[in-house]
């Protein structure tokens, strides 16, 4: 099933996709390792899932920009699942079963649920992720955080929380790590300057790559000339060293069927399938909103791709996977255009494990924290809050509640709190049939008139989006809001995104009395 809105020329975008994939790789590498450690799984498990997510799932997915891999949001589920089933090998069978369940969800078209998350909640999720990235990376930036790189929840394993960790970090600064972090951040910001971004040669070199290479060089100088400033091993990337094919096989884990008759196995599998599917649908919806081309991911295809990915990851000893918003937003911020970028990131993960572990273990985490600080700021720019406030309290209150709920709990709990607030505002409005659909034939062009009803609420969003997506190519579409007293912002945004991308299907769009709304985009 091809995305009807966009058929990319993968070769034409290699100049942007390969550097973007490299940037995502640098961010994903410590995340994979950290999530493995936090999950109580073998260190290698997260890397296996990162490789499968990049090399395989990127091509099975209909998304051009999302990146799949192990997710911080699943760490508690994995940790509890391993404890419940008694071994990691038994847990792997649950991962495979979860993958099968996701495949089934995709075939029964359960992905439509992704269309029912309000725009204000999705934007709140993006803003919250940006804030959390900034707050969580500050201690790593200063070389003072012992928690895993990529930890996202408010309450941490060491007994501190997001805010007290920052206070602690200021009292335990590792000067060398801080110096490296500042220099890396300066390089990334400098490379984001339009003069360099538009330069024919310099634009091919990612600022994050230069920052990482510089950080390795600076730490080498510290080791040789200023040992007191050298970054300690706990604040460097820590990849396992693989010695040949036998060493690789020894690092892999394989599932056990010992718990096949244990009902708890299926409870764990079902939990993984549902939570991973929800997190994936939320992530791709968020990335689609940031996509400058306004491409939309086929949700059912995404569930099938994730299902296959989890089956393969489970068979190879990997953690369960989702589409991950941190990696996806990093991918977009780095300038990715197509799924080649996600594939390249997976390829680099595989190569680093097999051949470059010694070199990768020289990378200071403070340099990688600098990359995520920039990504975090792009996700939670002050302009986003200003836009949401201008849209009125029906949009701003669910947005800000989602931000605060995610910040003080975790991703899924925060989303459901924000969703509950959004539903409250939705239920204040009456739900009426959203439009009247009429076809006419004029000469050689089919004319389709969509006349919106008096009151069009968010509940009508999915119906209208699906109608617009299935309109025939080469048609003339008239969207008439002349009778409408109220059209929800999400519906206005959907119409505006459709109008922007319709030319790719040779559809001429005529809009009558439908307001334009500000649409937040990442630049």
From TrEMBL:
GO biological process: transmembrane transport
Topology in membrane: Multi-pass membrane protein
UniProt GO cellular component terms: membrane
Primary localization: membrane
Ranges that cross the membrane: 20-37, 43-60, 115-135, 173-191, 203-226, 265-287, 308-326, 346-375, 396-427
UniProt keyword list: Membrane, Transmembrane, Transmembrane helix
Subcellular localization, as worded in the UniProt entry: Membrane
Residues spanning the signal sequence: none
SLC26A/SulP transporter domain ranges (all copies): 14-381
Keyword Transmembrane: yes
Name of the protein: SulP family inorganic anion transporter
Organism annotation: Pontibacter qinzhouensis
